[in-house]
Amino acid sequence: MICITGSPGSGKSTVTTILRTRGFTVHNVLDFPGSVECVSNGEADIECLRAVTSRLCGAGDIIEGHYSHLLNCDLVVILDRDEEQVLAELTSRGYHSNKIMENLDALRCDLYYSESLEMLPRSRIKRISVVEGNPELTATMVQSSVVEFQQELRQHRS
To answer: I need a surface site. Which of 53, 63, 83, 86 has the fewest CB within 10 A?
Structure first.
């Protein structure tokens, strides 16, 4: 399972929509039957999400969502976006100021990377800097990381 994560407003949905059009199997972490029940009052039950996604997700499938890096991932791709751009995006979406600050704090302390390191070795965590105004290029960079990883897996199995 390949997990694409990043803060809200980092471009996960945009990039994965592009990847879907390129033939990849992509799911939002909350689109699986039973996954909505894993989230209550904005808090995710990660064990519940792991159980749901492990049961329903194929090995080469891409899972998108800001909880996804906490699942049983084979590869984590973190979309890094400039803090000012994330602030502008979350403000335009009408996020409450407390939620905006919480997400900016997560960016500042590199939460997605540090949490990913608890699950996987560094070699299985890829960081992609979002190319502002060019989601196609960002998707191409993500695609390259995914394809490279899939090729490495095939070589190890041979």
So the answer is: 83
